[in-house]
Amino acid sequence: MMDTFDVIKNKLADYKILIAIVFVILVSGIFLLVHTRTEDTPVAAYSAKAVGSGSDAVSSTSSTVKSTTAIMVDIKGAVKTPGVYDIIDNPRVQTLIARSGGVTAQADINQVNLAQKLTDGQMIYIPVKGERLPNHSTANTPNTNSNQTQVNLNTATIEELQTLEGVGAKKAEQIIAYRDEHGGFKSIEEIKQVAGVGDKRFEAIQDKITV
To answer: Which domain holds residue 161?
Structure first.
């Protein structure tokens, strides 16, 4: 009887040890599972937030670039379609000439710096063959600042032409129409080809005009 009791007692002891091992394994597994999920959640959330922030940053940067690179430039002279153009990418003289349809057969492209970078509000002038400008820097950005008393026939506006003696609004329009049709004036004497500008009127303004 005693032997049977000892056997049962030993078996119960073995079962307790086995149950204890299984319990430890289960507890360890549950702990590891909970711990792993706890760590993964913040990482995933952070990653999603980081990706979103990166996309916003790229979008913001792109918007900034687009808003700062668009410029308006006026091109005149020996090009097929003179006028004002919006330049968004690669703001160079070569790009502007292409946008205006290219140069005419009379254009003297050797005086033009095709690689010159453009700025907003700039005016580019393409000279014709035989036309001599003061220097290459003014060939692309013509102005009359160097000589305030003279009006450049190839760049002057209607208002500027009307400052000349005997030139009214209608005559100024005729001068500009001739300039656009013939790709600019090659010499100041050529203004006499405009209807109504004879020798007397030319003598009165010849010291006040240039090309």
So the answer is: 143-211
Distance of CA 194 to the CA centre of its chain: 40
CA distance 7 to 198: 140
Average pLDDT over residues 88-93: 83
Q: Are 3 and 64 in a shared domain?
A: yes
pLDDT in tens, 141-196: 544 444 446 899 999 998 889 888 888 889 999 999 999 999 999 999 999 999 88
Q: How confident is the model at residue 3 (pLDDT cuts 50, 70, 90)?
A: low
Backbone angles phi, psi at 108, to 5 degrees: -105, 85
Give the residue from 68, 94, 112 where a domain finishes: 68
